[in-house]
């Protein structure tokens, strides 16, 4: 286990393999462990660095307000701590939001960007949006982490053959610090950088599950606003695509990274 300190917070990360760096950023309430099917596949060809976001996993959980910008600056500090240059950044859900934030604030750090089941904003535009956000905010406070884990396990992995994945959610989710979990959720609500997407000039891969929380059409819309992006839809998948479709996801990601490496003369981010 490796740690570094940024802004008074001790942050945990793991470092595998050799080659061009691929940095993995997990989602809300998760940790490095949710990349368990990706790290071995990637580390044979790349240097893989995975971070436990502030308030998650083995990283410190300071009692303070969190923000996506703070999470992003923690990630920048990790990149600087390791002396990395031109990183391939991969983020899922909240990790994708952190990736968007870093990409618009520090585009010079990125060789490529991969966004998984995420978007460049979490803002309410319709009455239905307000209702969904308010419902999630309220239930997260009313329910215990154990109750959330059981409901999330059924939502993400409903099939009989996914019993082991449900069990992992039910075991791991209650290990969160409830206060830190809620602070991270609050950081997501109202966040957005969509108006700055034109700053992201590097090759960008957007991966979406066909049954993600938000429809494919929403990803299609923002992909058109990115200068060098493509969209890949993973079928028979929900929000946790790297876990429920690891082989298809790994192949898609590796094909993209290998293509970027073959075209090294592309304009930098």
Short overview:
This protein is an alpha/beta fold.
SSE blueprint:
Blueprint: E1 2-6, E2 9-16, E3 21-25, H1 39-43, E4 47-51, H2 68-82, E5 87-92, H3 94-105, E6 110-116, H4 127-142, H5 145-156, H6 163-172, H7 178-188, E7 204-209, H8 216-223, E8 229-234, H9 241-244, H10 246-262
Parallel strand pairs: 3-4, 3-5, 5-6, 6-7, 7-8
Antiparallel strand pairs: 1-2, 2-4
Helix pairs in contact: 2-3, 5-6
Keywords: Hydrolase
InterPro entries: AB_hydrolase_1, AB_hydrolase_fold, AB_hydrolase_sf
GO cellular component, one term: membrane
Features:
269 residues; alpha/beta; AB_hydrolase_1; AB_hydrolase_sf; Beta-ketoadipate enol-lactone hydrolase; hydrolase; AB_hydrolase_fold
Description:
The protein is globular. The protein starts with a strand and ends in a 7-residue tail after the last helix. It has 269 residues and is an alpha/beta fold. The model has no long low-confidence stretch (mean pLDDT 96). It has one domain: Alpha/Beta hydrolase fold, catalytic domain (Rossmann fold), CATH 3.40.50. The chain contains ten helices and eight strands. It holds the Pfam family Abhydrolase_1.
The strand order across the widest sheet is: 1-2-4-3-5-6-7-8
**Uncertain spans:** none
Topology order in helix (H) and strand (E) letters: EEEHEHEHEHHHHEHEHH
Outline type: globular
* Major β-sheet profile: 8 strands, mixed
Residue share in helix: 40-55%
Query: How many runs of DSSP E, i.e. beta strands?
Result: 8
Give the distance, in angstroms, between the N- and C-terminal Cα atoms.
Answer: 31 Å
What is the alpha-carbon Rg in Å?
A: 17 Å
Mean pLDDT: 96
CATH architecture verdict: 3-Layer(aba) Sandwich
CATH structural class: Alpha Beta
Separate helix tally: 10
**CATH domain topology:** Rossmann fold
Domain AB hydrolase-1: 21-244
InterPro entries: AB_hydrolase_1 (IPR000073), AB_hydrolase_fold (IPR029058), AB_hydrolase_sf (IPR050266)
Protein name: Beta-ketoadipate enol-lactone hydrolase
GO molecular function: hydrolase activity
């Amino acid at each position: 286990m490796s740690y570094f300190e940024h802004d008074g917070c001790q942050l945990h990360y793991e470092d595998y393999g050799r080659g061009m760096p691929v940095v993995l950023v997990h989602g809300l309430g998760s940790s490095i462990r949710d990349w368990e099917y990706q790290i071995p596949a990637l580390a044979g060809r790349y240097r893989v660095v995975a971070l436990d976001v502030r308030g998650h996993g083995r990283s410190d959980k300071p009692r303070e307000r969190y923000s996506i910008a703070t999470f992003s600056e923690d990630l920048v500090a990790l990149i600087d701590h390791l002396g990395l240059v031109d990183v391939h950044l991969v983020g899922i859900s909240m990790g994708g939001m952190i990736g968007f934030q870093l990409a618009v604030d520090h585009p010079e750090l990125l060789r490529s960007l991969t966004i998984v089941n995420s978007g460049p904003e979490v803002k309410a535009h319709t009455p239905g949006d307000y209702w969904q956000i308010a419902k999630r905010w309220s239930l997260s406070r009313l329910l215990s982490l154990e109750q959330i884990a059981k409901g999330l396990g059924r939502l993400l992995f409903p099939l009989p053959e996914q019993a082991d994945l449900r069990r992992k959610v039910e075991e791991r989710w209650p290990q969160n610090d409830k206060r830190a979990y809620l602070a991270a959720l609050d950081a997501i609500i109202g966040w957005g950088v969509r108006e700055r997407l034109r700053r992201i000039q590097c090759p960008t891969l957007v991966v979406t599950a066909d049954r993600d929380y938000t429809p494919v059409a929403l990803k299609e819309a923002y992909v058109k606003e990115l200068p060098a992006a493509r969209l890949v839809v993973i079928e028979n998948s929900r929000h946790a695509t790297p876990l429920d479709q690891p082989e298809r996801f790994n192949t898609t990601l590796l094909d993209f990274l290998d293509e970027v490496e073959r075209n090294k003369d592309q304009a930098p981010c």
